[in-house]
Amino acid sequence: MKTLRYLFFLFFLFISCGDEETPTGPIANFGYTIDNLIVSFSDSSTVGDAAINNWVWDFGDGSKSTEQNPVHTYAEDGTYSVSLIVTDENVLSDATAPREIVLESQTIGPTANFSYTSNYLVVSFVDASTPGNSDINNWGWDFDGDGVDDTTGIGPHTYTYTVSGTYTVRLTVTDENNLTSSKETDVTVAEYTETGPAASFSFSANFLEVTFTDISTPGDGGIITWSWDFGDGSTSAEQNPIHTYEEDGTYSVSLTVTDENSLVDTYTGAIVVSATATFISLAPGYMSINLDINVEPTGELILQVGNLSNPIYGISLRIAYDSSNVLFMGATEYENGFFFGSEAISFVNDVSSVIHLVITSTSGSGVSGSGILYKLEFEGHSEGSHIVEILPDFLFFYDSTGNEITVPNLITYSATINVECIGEFDECGVCNGGGIEEGACDCEGNVEDCAGECGGSAYVDECDVCDDNLDNDCTQDCLGVWGGDAVE
């Protein structure tokens, strides 16, 4: 009976063991892409019952890798036999059949490139070239566009130009395979020029007392000094002086300003003052200098009123001129003056060359004292001094109701426009002149000597020496040779 039970147990055990399945292992496979001598491999193996956890690559050139997706760089062209072995967590492995990869490298040269930064005539250059198959080992820089390299090496390099202009800069690079590449770029440079101040001023008159306000514009440096000439022999170094004149009149006032760079500018303008009389005048505008119309040729007059003891609310006037000499171009309200924002202004340049201005104040209290009304722009048509005058018979003042009022002791001042040139001044200050004569170095007709000095006295003696010292002039020796040392 025991024997029977034992045989039954063995039979059952045999049947049970025969039911177990064999595990499925991985199937190795891979793909790749070629970039010159660089090959990127990608694992494309199929997983079995367990995950793959080990990769062994043989690149066929003696190199191996255990990465899943390696990138390998071959040293040279050729045919390489590559294989991959994969193993999973059940320690089951599979290997691909050796696969031949053919590599044929391309010869790639360098690509020249550079960047630059300029500081007026000084320019800094930085190489930005990229190598090909081999390293760059030579750089040739031509900064001035003459076709000859000015320096070599990777840099960065700094080059100083002597004059303003546009230069074609070329960089040529060469690599270890003796392959070259060039890059050309136009570089524009300019000399540094300091901008100086522009002098100007405004003023307000209270009878003979005038308050001057500096409205100069600084250049590259701040303004540090102010020099006023009030036109009556008095001066001031204040920025915003107050000056009292001794008598009525028209005065030419000049302001000279100097900045931190020792650059100077002067502005001159005319003002009218009166101890008792109310006046209306035309005087040089803030944008002109002595009303000299030059290259444009345009200039401005300012229409100003002074010493109004009682408020007024409007002015109507006519200004006459000779249109064959000057031409009226338009009127502009003065922003900081009287009647700014006026309700009505009209001007007519008719056949009699008369400007008609109607100015109405919007101020509820009217205006009094002194101030500027308008800026009038003229264009010169002939050289000379030309009168622009206010016509007293057509000058009217109005009260707040629009009725005409009489202003006692009224004085009118006209203006003279000086047209110096119709055309352009040349570099020698001559109207429509031809400039410096050919071969000369200045407006006086001087020429450069052998030392390069304009109007200098240096000369070249018989020994080809350039100087202006007569004591060391070349002499002849006893053989008649200039500069020789033979003696008797």
From TrEMBL:
GO terms for molecular function: carbohydrate binding. CDD domains: PKD. Coiled coil: none annotated. Residues 22-88, 123-189, 193-280 form the PKD domain. Pfam families: PKD_4. This is PKD domain-containing protein. It comes from marine metagenome.
